[in-house]
Design a protein that fits this description.
heterodimer, A: 97 residues, mainly beta, Folate-binding fold, four-stranded antiparallel sheet, two-stranded antiparallel sheet, 6 strands, B: 417 residues, alpha/beta, FAD/NAD(P)-binding domain, D-Amino Acid Oxidase, Chain A, domain 2, eight-stranded mixed sheet, globular, binds flavin-adenine dinucleotide, binds zinc ion
Chain lengths: 97, 417
């Protein structure tokens, strides 16, 4: 069970939250000019990092607000939490084989 | 030639207290170069190597495994084998595989304990009834055995189930595939390893792939913890680690890796004679030959590489099991574990060419690739040998995410197996 520190409510159990996947994927500015390949990239492709991963979560059973989490996907250590639109804080970047 | 396993070799070896069995496969050091390298020594990788050697004459090949054979999802899954998927593309793939299961033990001279005890998929809601019936019709049109059974028949197949009106999860019937069943997962890895080794394949364990040598978009070599190996053909068969390997090769995949978990109970007398799956509540159950209940749960809702699985998922599954089979409320669980599964957007695998020339992909099997082990390896070996997708693999190419021709099997797969 993860204890996720919601920036607005404090630490709560993981089943109060919803997962939004990879963070900082920028929605294309001019969608009408995108090729199928570029759309596929935006819609489907994932970094899916083993290690330090920037991801989005929503506190659906609490304040219902979205925010970003930096989590180590192997150890589940939460390295940082920050608001939507904020620049990600510097953390020790870990990756594994 | 390997010594054959038989009743006579068993008796002969009993005389020497089973201390003189020959080794089942060698553990050589990697050579400087190979005609093909398979990354990942799970079932799919080993079967690929076996067929490359057996049907395509490629015997100077290696399987590189970072841990031990079958230590990935092959040895962590709940071993449900069936072929009742919805679309023609999937039916062709999974049925091809099921046919190979039916002759596997004999072909390998290795008892994989494939037991066609029947697989029941329960329908707990009216929507599930509709989609299940539709799937049964699709299966039958594809020549796959599949039948609808009413609640009373469900009760005959699994007398322990609670069908009283007050049950938390009503059962409106289900689909039955009589040819479905279970197999011994380790034996599948070991049987294919032994057979591939006999054909000259080098199986190298405790050796991690750490990178690739790629020149002008073409693969030239594999960097491993035991040195660099030259090769022009690389098969990526690493399940949950597909994304990690793709990153090394400089491309991305439409895959999220997540823990999927399972549990086994203390052993009890035979009480569950078939496999029963409840997709809607993520609870799957069968009984091993040792008597343990083998229970499959849902996947975590977030990405992860811990081979563990989150506690809320365990609780939900056990709650569903207790509601459906009240007798199991007093059952003790002995072990719980997870495997990292490679979940694709349409619950179908990704097989075929990759953006790097000479590099081939076989991943995205997610929560349900054990059943596909022999078929996947067979088709993938052909794909690698001929540098083009095998006809059955064609619809499962990576570029379906560009063209939009997805093979959506969420209903047939559930999170299921
Ligand atoms: C709990 C659970 C239950 C499941 N239940 C079912 C079921 O009932 N029915 C079903 O059909 N499917 C089921 N599945 C899915 C099934 O287990 C998998 O789809 C299938 O076994 C994948 O086989 P594989 O050979 O591709 O992968 P694996 O067996 O995972 O093999 C991949 C191998 O690659 C190795 N590897 C990774 N990275 C590297 C590297 N850098 N260098 C070298 N080697 C590397 C790994 O160590 C691993 O051994 C289940 C999975 C889980 C986790
Ligand atoms: Zn909150």
């Amino acid at each position: 069970m993860l204890l996720i520190p919601c920036p607005y409510c404090g630490a709560r159990a993981e089943n109060e939250f919803g997962y939004g996947g990879e963070a900082h994927k920028v929605r294309p500015e001019t969608p009408e000019n995108l090729s199928d390949g570029q759309w596929a990239d935006y819609v489907f492709m994932q970094k899916n990092t083993k290690g330090t991963y920037h991801e989005r979560w929503v506190h659906s059973q609490g304040c219902r607000r979205w925010f970003n989490v930096i989590r180590d996907t192997l150890t589940n250590e939460i390295q940082a939490v920050y608001e939507m639109g904020e620049t990600p804080p510097e953390v020790d970047t870990k990756t594994y084989l | 030639m390997k010594s054959r396993y038989s009743i006579f070799s068993l008796a002969r070896n009993a005389l020497s207290y089973h201390e003189k069995w020959p080794q089942a496969w060698r553990s050589p050091e990697p050579k400087k170069s190979y005609d093909a390298v398979i990354v990942g020594g799970g079932g799919h990788g080993l079967v690929t190597a076996y067929y490359l050697a057996k049907e395509h004459g490629l015997t100077n090949i290696a399987v590189i495994e970072k841990g031990w054979l079958g230590g990935g999802n092959t040895g962590r899954n709940t071993t449900i084998v069936r072929s009742n998927y919805m679309w023609d593309e999937s039916a062709a793939l999974y049925e091809h595989s099921l046919k190979l299961w039916e002759k596997m033990s004999k072909e390998l001279n290795y008892n994989v304990m494939f037991s066609q005890r029947g697989v029941l998929n329960l329908a707990h809601t009216l929507n599930e009834v509709r989609i299940t019936k539709r799937r049964i019709n699709a299966n039958r049109l594809n020549g796959i055995d599949s039948e609808w059974i009413e609640p009373e028949q469900v009760k005959e197949w699994i007398p322990l189930i609670d069908l009283r009106a007050k049950g938390r999860y009503p059962v409106f019937g289900g689909s039955l595939q009589r040819r479905g069943g279970t197999a011994r997962h380790d034996a599948v890895a070991w049987g294919y390893a032994r057979a591939a080794d006999a054909l000259g394949v080098d199986i190298i364990q405790q050796c991690a792939v750490e990178g690739f040598d790629i020149e002008d978009g073409e693969v030239k070599g594999v960097r491993t913890s035991k040195g660099t190996i030259q090769t022009k053909k690389v098969g990526i068969v690493v399940a949950g680690h597909a994304g990690v390997i793709a990153n090394m090769a400089g491309f991305k995949l439409p895959i999220n890796s997540r823990p999927l978990q399972a549990l086994v109970s203390e052993p009890v007398k035979p009480c569950v004679h078939c496999v029963v799956m409840s997709g809607a509540v993520h609870a799957y159950i069968s009984q091993s030959d040792k008597g343990e209940l083998v229970i499959g749960a849902g996947a975590d809702s977030y990405n992860g590489y811990s081979q563990w699985g989150s506690n809320p998922v365990t609780e939900d599954t056990l709650a569903a099991i207790c509601e459906l089979y009240p007798m199991f409320r007093r059952m003790r669980m002995m072990r719980q574990w997870g495997g990292v599964v490679d979940i694709s957007p349409d619950a179908s695998p990704i097989m075929g060419l990759s953006p790097v020339k000479g590099m081939y992909l076989n991943c995205g099997w997610g929560t349900g690739g054990f059943k596909a082990t022999p078929g996947s390896g067979h088709i993938f070996a052909d794909t690698m040998a001929h540098d083009r997708p095998h006809p059955i693999a064609e619809p499962f190419a990576l570029d379906r995410f560009k063209t939009g021709f997805l093979v959506d099997e969420h209903a047939a797969a559930g999170v299921a197996h």
